[in-house]
Amino acid sequence: MNLEPWQLVLAIVGAVLVGVSKTGIAGLGMLFVVMFANVIPAKQSSGFVLPLLIFGDVVAVWSYRAHAKWAHVFRLMPWTAAGVVLGYFAMGRIDDRQARVLIGVIILVMVTVQLWRRWRAKPGELAEHGAWFAPTIGVLAGFTTLIANAAGPLMAIYLLAMRLPKMEYVGTGAVFFLLLNCFKVPFMVNLGLITTDSFGFNLMLAPAVFLGAMMGRKLLPKINQKLFENLALGLSAVAGIRLLF
């Protein structure tokens, strides 16, 4: 890939953020999505970023696998897989702008739902979630991750709604995204969004991802639980607004 110096710097910073988001603050995910969309065309960037995400997922699972709550993974994965298939068929029928607006609206609606549930719940009480909640989040997450690697905010909303402690939040998300991102690979290859050239550049950026992952591991234990939740939800909202404009 022939990149200008500023694009190369942006790609390296984006790769570091991939790692930090996987082992530290998950809400940073949309920042690197935007960065890579400024380096290469938006649709191509969704495939280009995928191997970098998997590199980060491997470190995150290795670091936090003991904290994963598998029941949430099993509850979401079938619905998420269905969403990936829907996204695969939609990819050739919508343009970049339509995809961004659609995903932004979905994220902002789900953030609003979560804030409303927080407001309604009494102190110390878990907000109830109907049978629709996991299937809805799962399908939307699968669809948005295939279109623009934008499932992070939706997963954040789900895990926050489940009131998972910080370490369980990260461990469950790590396992979920490793499985999901590996599942997406054949679809991205078939769409021509992962190529030998793009993967070669991914390998060049791999050290930056691993550096970011190590930084995230150092950062996570120092973050207060309430601050962690607010950061995850706040960055999700910012991501949704950014996609709209």
UniProtKB/TrEMBL annotation:
Record flagged with keyword Transmembrane helix: yes
Location of the protein in the cell: Cell membrane
Entry's transmembrane regions: 6-34, 46-64, 70-89, 101-117, 137-161, 173-193, 199-215
Domain of life according to the entry: Bacteria
Ion transport listed as a keyword: no
Bilayer topology: Multi-pass membrane protein
Any single Gene Ontology cellular-component annotation: plasma membrane
Keywords: Cell membrane, Membrane, Transmembrane, Transmembrane helix, Transport
Pfam families (alphabetical): TauE (PF01925)
InterPro entries: TM_pro_TauE-like, TSUP
Protein family according to the UniProt entry: Belongs to the 4-toluene sulfonate uptake permease (TSUP) (TC 2.A.102) family.
Name recorded for this polypeptide: Probable membrane transporter protein
Organism of origin: Rariglobus hedericola
Lineage, opening ranks: Bacteria, Pseudomonadati, Verrucomicrobiota, Opitutia, Opitutales
